[in-house]
Amino acid sequence: MSVEQQYLADVDAILAHRHDNGADLWATEDKRLLKGSPFSTFDSVLYLLELGMEPDEPILKEAANLIFSTWQEDGRFRIYPKGGIYPCQTAIAANVLCHMGYVNDERIQKTLRYFLDTPYHDGGWRCNKFSFGRGEETEHSNPQPTLNALDAFRFSQYLNREPALDRAVEFLLQHWVTRKPIGPCHYGIGTLFMQVEYPFRNYNLFEYVYVLSFYEYARKDSRFLEAFETLASKTVDGQIVVERVVPKLAKLSFCRKGQPSALATKRYGEILENLGKKGI
Q1: Mean local confidence (pLDDT), 191-199
Q2: Which residues contact 239 (CB under 8 A, 6 or more apart)?
Q3: Which end of the chain, N or C, is surrounded by fewer C-beta atoms within 10 Å?
Q4: Transferase: present as a keyword of the record (predicted)?
């Protein structure tokens, strides 16, 4: 797939931000790859892939090399030069590289093994960082990093074959029921979660249903089916209408708030295909 004519201006707009953070490829000079959201290195690579840019395009190959340069021998990624290395950071790095087609790279395979070896007791993944203090709610995994990890794993040989991933899916399905802010970063299921956000950046209904739809454990579960029906009820003539987008992306044509998005609808079509439902 290549970028369609109608999205070339979006690609140009994203590329125009590639030096915003002081270095090339949306990064800082000291390789802070999450800096500058919504135009961080990770964000921008995912946007370009979503718009149809091939992973073997020179700029994406350079970005992959940059991300891999932060890989550690234990499988984690150090995307900040100082401080701790947290599972949430490794999950997003691995997820981006899996989207780029590197799932079989021996470094990514080691990263996936790192995740399989380090789940929290509730099945998800949890960062040992307490920005909001400690409480009963922080004795849970972080939903968004867990969803990011599962997004990476769906590209792998472990999909629907690894019990540890079923436990991670169960953790997220339980959150659909409790809905309370949980984990050290207080991820909840409330008004903002229920708004259809696109492109995928935050913990929200659309990304939640999309990622979980790849997992057999979820597809046969009533909690997931309820989440899917909630998403389906928001479609208009079978199309996904963007309800929320970060303001700095508002001018991009592929994700305009209040309008149907062909690329978001394509993702919805993948959900239907995963569920064995008639396509759109």
Answers
A1: 97
A2: 260, 261, 262, 265, 268, 280
A3: N
A4: yes
- CB-CB contact of 157 with 216 (8 Å): no
pLDDT digits (tens, 9 = 90+) for 120-158: 999 999 987 646 556 676 889 999 999 999 999 999 999
Rounded CA gap, 130 and 89, in Å? 15
Task: Return the number of other C-beta atoms located less than 10 Å from residue 194's C-beta.
Answer: 17
Contact indicator for 63, 18 with CB cutoff of 8 Å: no
Prediction pTM value: 0.96
pLDDT at 135: 64
The answer to whether 88 touches 149, Cβ cutoff 8 Å, is no
CA gap 255, 57 in Å, rounded: 23
Map tokens 């991300």 to a residue: 67
Mean pLDDT of the chain: 94
CA nearest 228: which of 274, 280, 264, 185? Answer: 274
Listed residue (47, 43, 45, 73) closest to 61, CA to CA: 45
